[in-house]
Design goal:
It contains five helices and 14 strands. The chain is mainly β. It has a five-stranded antiparallel β-sheet with strand order 3-1-8-9-14, with no helix packed on it. It has a five-stranded mixed beta barrel with strand order 4-5-11-10-7. It has one domain: hypothetical protein yedk fold (Alpha-Beta Complex), CATH 3.90.1680.10.
């Protein structure tokens, strides 16, 4: 899964790919969490727009359920089996810019330790996502099976696109074929302090190695 991430200077980091900005500012968020309004990039006709959506999809069929938890992630393997996502993958795909994301490793005693995952040379991560216009403007991040050393920390990870792969994802007439054949870029990771566990903590020190 992907439940927290960091994104800073998003306007600057997306200036080469977007043509429109719907009120997104160059703020720094070192502990982005579900329910927050966060920047995404979506396609509007022939241009790309940077805008703010809420992290967490609420399907139409669940609107009257008081205990329904918004869907922060969408599993790649079952996208076409879930009516919540099968329609969105056809025409409502988006990118979620990030500097890196957090994941937690559970030890034998059940205690969890946070790690930060990023690209080796600090390139921007573009997480594959889906969006919808519901009561709120909402998005979910697509996840896939973690491989290699990453799987030692957690068995899931987001689908991560390089800047040069953005067009392939947003413009594809067969996005599932693209996603299933896609290979995530090289990712490095390290343990960080447990301050990130509290969503109210939001400062650059969260990225410091533990």
């Amino acid at each position: 899964m992907c439940g927290r991430y960091s994104i800073t200077k998003v306007v600057k980091k997306t200036k080469n790919i977007v043509q429109n900005n719907e009120g997104v500012e160059n703020s720094d968020n070192y502990n982005a969490y579900p329910t927050q309004q966060l920047p995404i990039v979506k396609k509007d006709e022939d241009s790309l727009t940077l805008t703010n959506y809420h992290w967490g999809l609420v399907p139409k069929w669940s609107e009257k359920m008081t205990d329904f938890r918004p869907l922060n992630n969408a599993r790649l393997e079952t996208l076409m089996e879930k009516r919540t996502f099968s329609g969105l993958i056809k025409s409502q795909r988006c990118l979620v810019p990030a500097d890196g994301y957090y994941e937690w490793r559970k030890n034998e005693e059940g205690k969890k330790f946070p790690y930060f995952f990023k690209r080796e040379h600090n390139e921007t991560l573009f997480l594959a996502g889906l969006y919808q216009k519901n009561n709120n403007l909402e998005f979910s991040i697509i996840t896939t099976t973690a491989k290699g050393e990453i799987s030692d920390i957690h068995h899931r990870m987001p689908v991560i696109l390089k800047e040069e792969e953005i067009k392939n994802y947003l413009d594809s007439k067969d996005p599932m074929t693209f996603l299933k054949s896609h290979q995530n870029p090289e990712i490095v990771f390290y343990e960080v302090g447990r301050d990130v566990n509290n969503p109210s903590n939001n400062h650059i020190g969260l990225l410091d190695p533990a």
